[in-house]
Design goal:
The protein is an all-beta fold. The chain is about 5% helix and about 45% strand.
């Protein structure tokens, strides 16, 4: 899916743009846990001494070897993990766990309009500091990354929207008709009336409705 790429504001180096990396790409030397434990911009992700990316909050999808960040143009949400091995040349898509939702069908989707990170490992970092002989020690990894925004396939809104049940009939029927999966909170009901119009009701407002199209979803707050 096509994504709009956003500049990631960081204190690390701005990279020269290549045909394989979008404008706004940044570079970072991520040192292993024992050598400072550098955090990836805006996340809790670090590299442990076993050479794994580790996070307690963000979820990562390993995309396999990639030529550059621009080649990661689809979501792969069936193998999300909080720990992934550092692979030179490997690509990773990184999501805030709050922007993910697994529907009752078992399909995991990312919230339309939310931001996530694209990252590629460029090389390992070695050092001979403190050594008098032997091979250099591997002490970290050089990564390139950029932020991107999840799309909604031209249908899903890119932000949470509200529906006031005093209106009775939901105006944007196309949104509901296009959805592949609809989930309502326990206090919300939605159905098509005899005229084919979507009617939404709520008990003890507020409630929520999640609508999924492929690997993206949107939230409607029902008040």
């Amino acid at each position: 899916m096509a994504v709009a790429l956003l500049l990631s504001v960081t204190a690390c180096t701005k990279e020269d743009v290549t045909p394989y990396d979008p404008e706004g790409t940044a570079g970072l030397n991520m040192m292993f846990e024992s050598y400072g434990g550098t955090l990836l911009d805006g996340t809790d992700i670090y590299i442990d001494d076993a050479q794994n990316f580790v996070s307690g909050y963000f979820r990562m999808a390993y995309m396999g070897p990639v030529a550059g960040l621009s080649s990661m143009n689809r979501h792969l949400l069936n193998n999300l993990t909080g720990s992934a091995a550092v692979e030179v040349g490997g690509g990773y898509m990184i999501y805030d766990s709050d922007t993910l939702h697994t529907f009752s069908s078992g399909v995991t989707a990312v919230e339309s309009g939310s931001t996530y990170l694209l990252m590629r490992v460029e090389s390992m970092i070695t050092s001979t500091e403190g050594q008098t002989e032997g091979a250099p020690k591997t002490v970290g990894a050089r990564v390139r990354y950029v932020s991107a925004r999840a799309g909604g396939y031209g249908v899903l809104p890119d932000h949470r929207t509200e529906f006031d049940t005093d209106h009775g009939v939901f105006a944007d029927a196309n949104l509901f008709n296009a959805a592949e999966e609809i989930e309502c909170s326990y206090n919300v009901e939605c159905f098509k009336d005899g005229n084919g119009e979507w009617v939404i009701g709520v008990r003890n407002a507020p409630g929520t409705i999640r609508l999924r199209i492929r690997d993206s979803f949107a939230i409607i707050d029902v008040i």
